[in-house]
Design brief:
By secondary structure, this protein is an alpha+beta fold. The chain has five helices and nine strands; from the N terminus they run βαββαβββαββααβ. It folds into two domains: about 90 residues, Pseudouridine synthase I, catalytic domain, N-terminal subdomain (Alpha-Beta Plaits), CATH 3.30.70; about 140 residues, Alpha-Beta Plaits, CATH 3.30.70. β7 and β8 form a beta hairpin. The protein starts with a strand and ends with a strand.
């Protein structure tokens, strides 16, 4: 039987979602916990990959097992998992349902604190700048809806077949000192959100214009875009099926 597992995690202590040699990952921790409880070999498939230090307030994964997984398994898993990984629910699905390929959209937030807070050091990028032109940043962000090829914001060495993505939402919001970039798309490229945010911050600082942002997209060159912002401010917040 196939089950969907809904979970969340703080990515600070992990080298991303995906299992890799000689590095701790979220996928590895959950796989080990499942194997311990179910006493069988486990293949855990996630809805996507998050990079080292990136967090997820909502992530899904699927697993196949011969055992019947009841609600009790949520508590059993949480009892042996590290405290920075939390299982929220386990639900039986059809054998064909796929955590990665059946997802129709993913939503990320990039969280910036305009100031300093020692309690948010690991979950926000903290900036001193007080004169960011957020209106200009949103004007530039609106250009994302007019394009599909985002090679300019992709990690250079990547094995994807296409750089095309459909952006469904891209907006900055400011509440008190919390500046958040919300972005939703059918798929994302490696490092895409962090590169977009870095470039939009340059627009906000007046280092680039809205027209510059348009030219960067059309150039399809990563070297034209801004720096990739720190991973600690990035959250995967929603996966839709």
């Amino acid at each position: 039987m196939r089950y969907f597992i809904e979970l969340s995690y703080k990515g600070t202590n992990y080298h991303g979602w995906q299992i890799q040699p000689d590095a701790s990952s979220v996928q590895e921790e959950i796989t080990k916990a499942l194997a311990t409880i179910l006493q069988e070999k486990i293949l855990l498939v996630g809805a996507g990959r998050t990079d080292a230090g990136v967090h997820a307030s909502q992530m899904f994964a699927h697993v196949d097992t011969v055992k019947k997984l009841t609600d009790d398994y949520v508590h059993k898993l949480n009892a042996i998992l590290p405290n920075d990984i939390v299982i929220k629910s386990i639900k039986e699905v059809s054998d064909e349902t796929h955590a990665r390929f059946d997802a129709v959209s993913r939503t990320y937030e990039y969280r910036i604190l305009l100031g300093r807070d020692p309690f948010l050091l690991e979950t926000t990028w903290q900036l001193h700048q007080k004169n960011l032109q957020i209106e200009k940043m949103n004007e530039a962000a609106n250009l994302l809806f007019k394009y599909e090829d985002f090679e300019s914001f992709s990690k250079v060495k990547t094995d994807v077949n296409t750089f095309n993505c459909t952006i469904m939402k891209a907006v900055w919001t400011l509440e008190d000192k919390h500046l958040i970039f919300h972005i939703k798309a059918n798929r994302f490229l490696r490092n895409m959100v962090r590169a977009i945010v870095g470039t939009l911050i340059e627009v906000g600082l007046g280092k680039k214009t809205v027209e510059d942002f348009r030219k960067i997209i059309e150039s399809k060159k990563r070297s034209e875009a801004g720096l990739s912002v720190p991973a600690k401010g990035l959250f995967l917040t929603e996966v839709c099926y």
